[in-house]
Amino acid sequence: MTFELPSDLNPALVGLAWLRGRWEGTGYREWPGEEKIQFAQQVDFAENGGDYLHYLSQTFEVDADGAPVRPLAMETGFWRPLADGTVDVMMCSPEGFAEIWYGKLTPGGST
User: Fold this and answer.
1) Which of 24, 17, 25 is nearest to 1 (CA)?
2) Residue 100 domain-assigned (yes or no)
3) pTM value?
């Protein structure tokens, strides 16, 4: 994927700049004891000049035409790269779950 770094991007976000924007996809969910359903997920990464990205994920059950039927899950949080090459991820859901992830930014690799 080719993209240009905005001139006003906070320098701390260069390693995460490729995440900016909206990501969408579909799939199937099958849990033991439940009917298999098709779902869609939308993930947004936005920045406002600070040294972090805001993260918002929403999933919906969809019908055969891909139209939303009902919401399934939502979470929001922040991705914050640190000067030592690590990244802190803080997320929470309306059900009261909170998660903290951390890892190392690796050029051309994963976090």
Assistant:
1) 17
2) no
3) 0.84
pLDDT in tens, 67-106: 999 999 999 999 999 999 899 999 999 999 999 999 998 7
43 CB neighbour count, 10 Å cutoff: 16
CATH code, domain carrying 43? 2.40.128.20
CB 2 within 8 A of CB 12: no
96 domain-assigned: no
Q: Using CA atoms, how far apart are residues 70 and 17, in angstroms rounded to an integer?
A: 31
Domain interval for residue 24: 11-78
pLDDT tens-digit map of 1-32: 677 888 889 999 998 999 999 999 999 999 89
Q: Is residue 94 a part of any domain in this protein?
A: no
